[in-house]
Structures are given as structure tokens and as C-alpha cells.
Amino acid sequence: MPMIDQPTRNFLDGFFRRTAIQERVTIVALAFLRTHVHLLLQTGPRLDLSRLVRLLKGGSSYAASRQPDNKLGLRWNREYSVTSVSPKLLQGAIDYIERQNERHPAEMIPP
After folding, report:
1. What does the angle CA 90 – CA 5 – CA 52 come to, to the nearest 5 degrees?
2. Which of 26, 61, 78, 86 is the most buried (most CB within 10 A)?
3. How many CB atoms lie within 10 A of CB 64?
4. Cα dihedral 10, 56, 37, 84 sign
């Protein structure tokens, strides 16, 4: 469901960036659509990925739904997809994420 509006997008951007710093991961690319998020991270070799996803999804859902300007609430789907990207394919992955508004114009978040 489309639950990410502009105030929620702004909140999520800051939340994801703060969480990334706390967890010592680097956000390489990030795209928000009304129904989902694309996130490309650079991590260390021993990252507990399921814990990071739980922090990002669970933490952001809880906090975003309690923001005074959040009128839609925020609930993430239980599923998520993870793919590793080789250095050779990194730029293609970045380009893919950065073009999400072109790929899904109906899901763009209005200002």
C-alpha cells in the first residue's frame, strides 16, 4: 500500500542514515517510492543482515507512525530481498536505484 508520503520520506531518510552510521554501514544509494524503498549498502564481512533489516524496518515503522505529521502510518511487508553486488556491477546497481522515479512514475512521492 502507498504509505510513504513526503513527511514520511523525510523522516525515513534521516532514520536510515542515522541507523547506517550506528551500525557502521555506508548507504551507497537510496530511493523512496510510495510503496517501497530501494537501499544499496556497503557493509563489512560480518554484518548480521537480518538484525540490520529488523532495525531499519521495525524501528522506522514504530517511529514513523508516531510522527505528528504522519497521516498514513507505516507498515512494512514482512518479506525483503537482498542481493550482493560485485564491484564490476556496482555502477549499474546505483543507476537502477537512482532511476526508480522514471521506472515507476505513478509511485513517485509528491512534494
Report:
1. 45
2. 61
3. 21
4. positive
- What pLDDT digit, counting tens, does each position of 19-50 carry? 999 999 999 999 999 999 999 999 988 899 99
pLDDT at 20: 96
- Alpha-carbon distance 73 to 10, whole Å? 14
Does 64 have pLDDT greater than 80? Answer: no
Domain 6-107 has CATH 1.10.10.60: no
Specify the pTM.
0.85
Domain assignments of the chain as residue spans, ordered by start: 6-107
Q: Which three cell numbers stand for residue 8?
A: 514520511
| CA gap 45, 109 in Å, rounded | 34
